[in-house]
Write a structure and sequence with these properties.
Layout (H helix, E strand, L loop, with lengths): L1 H17 L3 H19 L2 H9 L4 H6 L5 H4 L5 H6 L5 H5 L1 H20 L8 H29 L5 H26 L5 H11 L1 H9 L9 H14 L5 H21 L5 H10 L2 H6 L2 H8 L4 H30 L1 H15 L2 H8 L3 H29 L5 H20 L2 H8 L1 H10 L2 H13 L13
Helix pairs in contact: 2-9, 2-10, 2-12, 3-17, 8-9, 8-11, 8-12, 9-22, 10-11, 10-18, 13-14, 15-22, 15-25, 18-19, 18-21, 19-21, 19-25, 20-21, 23-24
Length: 454
């Protein structure tokens, strides 16, 4: 009994010590810088635009400005391999790209704070695209930094702290921005958000550059291949071709060796389809029911954030208990069913308890689903090509968000809130069928048929 107690105590001491590691703590501050820009070009910007009188359809179409998140895998090899003049020499490959992306983010947000976004709608769109591009580039560099700086035993703790920081960044640009808008102008709000990026800049200046993973073996294999295939090429060209192959083609060819890789990509694109169809309309739905800015920020942003964190821990337990595909299936199903709680809120109307019930149901299951999805992404990637492969997978997740969110305003204008939530709920059915099919294909079925008795 005493031995068991000592073992348990040591286990928790070792686990908690991971969170005191400076490398792990740094992930939280980088996560904050990564989470801050997302809402500033989506729901928070939509709130500001609606306050200025823009129609739902146009607001929904502005979701397309987040397109860079969906195609960031196209320039991920550049961020991975190409050095920046002056910056890379002094800060290293990862930190130089982090610095550049964060400076560009700050300048774009600051520029947005000096205009009227409705009167200068084209400028607003251009700045929103630039913010999305800089933020996506920051995500690529941060992911690569995390993979290379942390040891394998620190990945779980680093990801937990990173997600917590990410949520704090979203809290700042979501509930923080909405609350701040009640006492200052929206232009001032965006100026404050721009200066909040100083957190990320200070972190990048203080952390160390990681050691790069060694890909010499794959490079030498490719070099022999190109020397044999193109013997007339100079040694310089022969060396350039395998470098380009390693940076651009190898991550994708390696991924395509996986069984069921096409189905995996479809899951990335459609797994969050329910939320994506609703898009940026949640806050606008609450406004239409008569809730004010403080009520929305307290329920949807602050309470919702902690509900999502709780859901993340539940998702982790389910993943440990059930394994990959069953947890992926169950978490996706429960979150889609939770969307039906919006119909209850629509029927009840302006009732604060119903609002909190709706937010709790959606955000807890959303946290569960996020954990399952991220765990699935990690199982799909090769560590040597992790930055580009994860950029590909997360790009597809964002592509689903941008593609389906652009229809949300039209659905509300033409079909109403009721049908928006019904469509969002039942759209998960094809995705669940694909998950089950893939589990059978890989020999991990979670619906096992009982053998008939003879």
């Amino acid at each position: 009994m005493e031995d068991a107690f000592i073992f348990t105590l040591r286990f928790w001491q070792e686990t908690l010590s991971l969170y005191r590691n400076p490398r792990v703590i740094a992930m939280g501050f980088l996560g904050f810088s990564s989470g801050l820009p997302l809402l500033l070009t989506s729901s928070t910007l939509a709130f500001w635009l609606k306050k200025l009188g823009l129609d739902y359809t146009t607001i929904g179409l502005l979701s397309l400005t987040a397109l860079p998140y969906t195609i960031k895998f196209l320039w991920a090899p550049i961020v991975d391999k190409v050095p920046l003049p002056f910056l890379t020499k002094h800060f290293g490959q990862r930190r130089s790209w982090l610095l550049l992306s964060q400076v560009l983010l700050g300048l774009c947000l600051l520029s947005l704070s000096f205009i009227n976004p409705v009167e200068s709608l084209s400028v607003t769109c251009a700045l929103a695209v630039a913010i999305s591009f800089s933020s996506a580039t920051q995500d690529i560099a941060m992911l690569a930094y995390q993979m290379e700086r942390l040891g394998r035993s620190q990945y779980g703790a680093g990801e937990a702290v990173g997600i917590f920081g990410y949520r704090m960044g979203m809290l700042c640009s979501g509930a923080g921005a909405l609350s701040l808008s009640t006492v200052v102008s929206w232009n001032t709000v965006y100026m404050v958000m721009a200066f909040s990026l100083i957190v990320g800049l200070i972190t990048v200046l203080r952390i160390k550059e990681p050691e790069r993973p060694n890909a010499d073996e794959e490079y030498n294999t490719l070099l022999k291949h190109y020397k044999k295939k193109f013997p007339a090429f100079s040694s310089l060209n022969q060396g350039l071709l395998p470098s380009l192959h390693l940076a651009v083609l190898s991550p994708f060819s390696d991924f395509m060796k996986r069984q069921g890789w096409v189905l995996a990509l479809i899951i990335m694109f459609t797994y969050k389809i329910g939320d994506n169809i609703i898009g940026t309309m949640h806050n606008l739905f609450y406004i239409e029911l008569g809730f004010n800015e403080l009520e929305i920020s307290a329920a949807s942003k602050i309470f919702g954030m902690w509900a999502s964190i709780l859901g993340g821990f539940i998702g982790g337990l389910l993943f440990s208990r059930w394994g990959l595909y069953k947890s992926l299936y169950f978490c996706g199903l429960t979150h889609s069913l939770s969307i039906l709680s919006n119909l209850i809120l629509l029927h009840v109307g302006n009732d604060i308890l119903s609002l909190y019930f709706c937010v709790a149901a959606e955000h807890i299951t959303s946290g569960m689903r996020l954990t399952a999805l991220f765990a699935y992404q990690l199982t799909l990637c090769n560590r040597i090509h992790a930055a580009t492969q994860l950029a590909l997978l997360t790009s597809l997740v964002h592509l689903g968000r941008v593609t389906f969110a652009s229809t949300s305003g039209w659905i509300v204008d033409h079909l109403g809130w009721n049908n928006l939530f019904l469509i969002s709920t039942f759209s998960i059915i094809p995705v669940l069928l694909i998950i089950h099919w893939l589990s059978v294909l890989e020999g991990q079925p979670f619906f096992k048929q009982k053998k008939a008795n003879n």
